[in-house]
Amino acid sequence: MKHLFLTSSIGIPGVGESIRTMLGHDRPLKAVFINTPVEGDDQSDLSWVDEERVGLNKNGFITFDYTITGKNLSQIQADLADIDVLYISGGNEFYLKEKSTESGFETFVNEFVNSGKIYIGTSCGSIIMGEDMTPLQKLSDLTALLKPIDVVGFGIVDFTILPHWGSQDFRGRWLNNESFNLMYKENSALIALNNYEYVEVLGDKYRIIDVRSEK
């Protein structure tokens, strides 16, 4: 049974703690920290990446960094054969999809999730698990990537996450005509998550959890 935790930010106080409680684990879990999305993002301030890592490590997820860039499927399967948790960081979801297509990483993710092991995503790592990333496009993506944008996600869940909803840092991204025009479609199942919320997916069911209500 697939078990996913789709967050806006695991670095927000209370999010990692809530996920640890949901899992009820009492031992260190080996977690790969897929940092490939960061490669396609602004490199001027990466303090948020450290916050993600801290949010995992202080809650029993023992991480090591890994990029799929330049790898093939056989390498990825061999390198990640003994992990307990697959974590994909925030960053550029279209860059991640590009590198996933090149490496075969999407196949690995599907195999991992369908085996019942734990998946955690933050922002980009949550977005990529949906079917349609069209609402996430922005003009800067057109110049950042080497190939035409692929807006098809991994399709492991049948909705698309809009992360960081209500955050002042993302106000300009969401509250503009370009974004709303892309979102406004009858066939789009969208979940807007603020930084204190995450979606737990268990099998074919899911629920939205606000960690502020657990205090």
**What assembly state would you assign to the polypeptide chains in this entry?**
single chain
- The helix content, as a percent range, equals 25-40%
For the record, give the distance between the C-alpha atoms at the N and C termini, rounded to a whole number. Answer: 29 Å
Widest sheet: strand ordering: 3-2-4-5-1-8-9
Number of helices: 10
Largest beta-sheet characterization: 7 strands, mixed
Task: Supply the number of structural domains.
Answer: 1
Based on secondary structure, the structural category is alpha/beta
- What global shape is seen? globular
Going by CATH, the architecture would be: 3-Layer(aba) Sandwich
Characterization of the model:
The protein is α/β, with parallel strands linked by helices and 215 residues long. The protein has one domain: Class I glutamine amidotransferase (GATase) domain (Rossmann fold), CATH 3.40.50.880. It is 34% helix and 20% strand. It is built from 10 helices and 9 strands. The chain has helices spanning 15-23, 36-39, 47-57, 73-79, 93-103, 105-114, 124-127, 139-144, 171-174, 177-183; strands at 3-7, 29-34, 61-66, 85-88, 118-122, 160-162, 190-192, 197-202, 205-210. The strands form 2 sheets. Strands 3-2-4-5-1-8-9 form a 7-stranded mixed beta sheet, sandwiched between helices. Strands 6-7 form a two-stranded parallel sheet. The chain is globular, with a radius of gyration of 16 Å. The two termini are 29 Å apart. The mean pLDDT is 91.
